Amino acid sequence: MLRIKCPFCGERDHSEFSYGGDANIIYPDLAASMEAWIEAVYRRENPKGPHRERWQHTDGCRLWLIVERDTLTHEIASVMPANAALASLLDGQSS
Amino acid sequence: MPRYSALSLIKHAITGNRDWPRAWPNPEPKSSYDVIVVGGGGHGLATAYYLAREFGIRNVAVLEKSYIGSGNAGRNTTIVRSNYMLPGATEFYDFSLKLWNNLSHELNYNVMFSPRGQILLAHSPDALDSAARRGNIMRRHGIAARLLSRADMQKLVPHLDYRPTARFPIWGGLMQPTAGTARHDAVVWGYARAAAALGVDIIQNCEVSGFLRDGGRITGVETSRGQIRAGKTGIAVAGHTSRLGEMAGLSLPIESHLLQAFVSEPLKPLLDYVIGFGGHGHFYISQSDKGGMVFGGDLDMYNSYAQRGNLPVVRDVAALGVSLMPCLGRVRLLRHWAGVMDMTMDGSHIIDRTPIDGLYLNAGWCYGGFKATPASGWCFAHLLARDEPDRLAAPFSLDRFRRGAMIDEAGVGPIPKLH
């Protein structure tokens, strides 16, 4: 079982979360080239090792998180809110 | 290589089975080949066999980083079927089934193909309508299909849960009587032996670490056993396709995910058919010739190369198994394991040239690679020999994503974990 430390709810089993895939994918502007869209929608780096990925805490606070996880060892290096404003708010609290 | 026959069995039995010859040689890699196939699983070995047998190209090497069949060829649930609905997929898998039918004779190796029939369960009137539609599409393509009523099901598969309280009430099912199972390791060994007999070099413990280039063209591979040159290089590695792609500079529409499989302690004959359950979850089960219940379910649902599964899926699969066949509740699990799947963006495979000269791709088999082994090998051999895809492989091109010509049987879009 992976254990994901949700910044809002604490450490929980990964079965509370749903997986949202590669977090490095940013959808381009609507007017961007076809090539940029094909890259974002279909192509994946699919690394063996550290992977930045999205998870949603569906059975908890329902917020989207960015998790850094190793795809070979399943070790989780960091968890932070996907929303940048929330992430900086949490940063402010901890400092 | 001596042929296996009843006579050879008797002869070796008399001499105490002490001097069976090696089934295939263990050669040192040569410095160059006409064709190198990277990946010694079922698909890679079948490719080499059909290259030699159908297309007359015998100066071929299959490179395997571990022992042959150590990847997904040895990790699947051995199901062979062709009950697909979309144009392209239906014909491809039907061709594969035709090759399965004669495979043991052709290879002179018993792959234990057992076309015992596969039944897709229907748990509501709508699911039964949908099964009828699938069956009609199959029959239009000449693939046998039979719609089963609840009464039929009770006769054929008496151990399902038919009580009024059943979590998944049985309304009927769709049977493909020509589908079944095969012995996965024997498929690997049979292709290896038959390919080696035709002159193919099977080189194990030989991991590819890079590609050799001449200008823009790929001219061979760098391996843990030295450089090997090749006129053409084909990739058939499953799970690790993206890693080979990265070495070549290709960005691919693939994510690697884990799929677990399970086998129980051996039981007396309990289940005569392969059973598939989908829609409200995912579960499939058959009984091996040794008596073990062989079953599986969904992916682990996150990118991974770990070859080991996680517990939530074990729980889900067990719960589904017991819901469908309550008698499984007291059966003990013998082993469970995971393989690394190439999950593509539409759930279908890729057999195509790559944008790089000299490099060819056979990848993205998602859940369905085992049943495809003969057709995959045949079509990939055709591509490597003729430099153009066979009619059956043409729909499974690498640029179909750019053209919007996806073959998305599940209809869920570019989300690999859901296919």
From TrEMBL, chain A:
It holds the Pfam family SoxD. InterPro entries: SoxD, SoxD_sf. Gene3D superfamilies: Folate-binding superfamily (3.30.2270.10). It comes from the Bacteria. This is Sarcosine oxidase subunit delta. It comes from Dongia soli.
UniProtKB/TrEMBL annotation, chain B:
The keyword Mitochondrion does not apply. Its main location: cytoplasm. Its cofactor is FAD; FMN. It catalyses: sarcosine + O2 + H2O = formaldehyde + glycine + H2O2; sarcosine + (6S)-5,6,7,8-tetrahydrofolate + O2 = (6R)-5,10-methylene-5,6,7,8-tetrahydrofolate + glycine + H2O2. It is an enzyme of class 1 (oxidoreductase). Keywords: Cytoplasm, FAD, Flavoprotein, FMN, Nucleotide-binding, Oxidoreductase. Its EC number is 1.5.3.24. Pfam families: DAO. Residues 35-79 form the Rhodanese domain. It is found in: Cytoplasm. It comes from the Bacteria. The keyword Cytoplasm applies. Belongs to the SoxB family. This is Sarcosine oxidase subunit beta. It comes from Dongia soli.
